[in-house]
Design goal:
single chain; alpha+beta; four-stranded antiparallel β-sheet; 7 helices; about 40% helix; elongated
């Protein structure tokens, strides 16, 4: 397991700016945080290397793309079949996410489809895999809290004040 990165106030400010201005480059992030461009670049590089910044993939809304039927599916799988079910689920395009879990089920999936008939087809594909013993699904009616990360990161106690003098002075 990876050692958690130690984030300070400047790291959080850079991440905030990256979320607020998603198309901003290093120079714009530097202006927004009032820190030297090289400092912002070094901080971003460090957060990439530590895995805090995991990707620059665009956040896609499958509902806007026409896949407005979604469900969560809890799977009970055969004993020791986690690797097999991982490969089987990855081969089904309607499976958007899947997580190994504790509790009554073994895997929790989020699936998407363009219609109820499409949803049924995805569910049948999942049930046909050799590793799934039983499944239980619930249809998503609406999003109450969208996927987010920054509120959780802001609960961290920053590791200290930033070393960048300009950033310290603006506080």
């Amino acid at each position: 397991m990876r050692t958690p990165a130690k984030l300070d106030e400047l790291d959080l400010a850079i991440l905030d700016a990256m979320h607020a201005y998603q198309k901003a480059g290093i120079l714009e992030l530097s202006r927004r945080t009032k820190v030297a461009r090289a400092t912002v670049q070094a901080r971003i590089n460090r957060m990439e290397e530590s895995g805090v910044i995991a990707s620059y993939d665009p956040q896609l809304d499958v509902t806007a793309a026409g896949f407005d039927v979604q469900a969560f599916v809890t799977l009970e799988i055969a004993q020791g079949a986690l690797d097999a079910v991982s490969a089987e689920l990855a081969a089904i395009p309607g499976v958007l996410e899947a997580y190994a879990t504790t509790g009554s089920g073994d895997v929790l999936c989020r699936i998407g489809a363009d219609s109820h008939a499409g949803l049924q087809a995805v569910l049948l594909s999942i049930d046909r895999t050799g590793s799934v013993v039983r499944s239980h699904s619930v249809i998503v009616l609406s999003t109450v809290v969208a996927r987010r990360t920054m509120p959780l990161l802001h609960t961290l106690t920053p590791t200290g004040t930033a070393k960048a003098p300009a950033y310290r002075e603006q506080r």
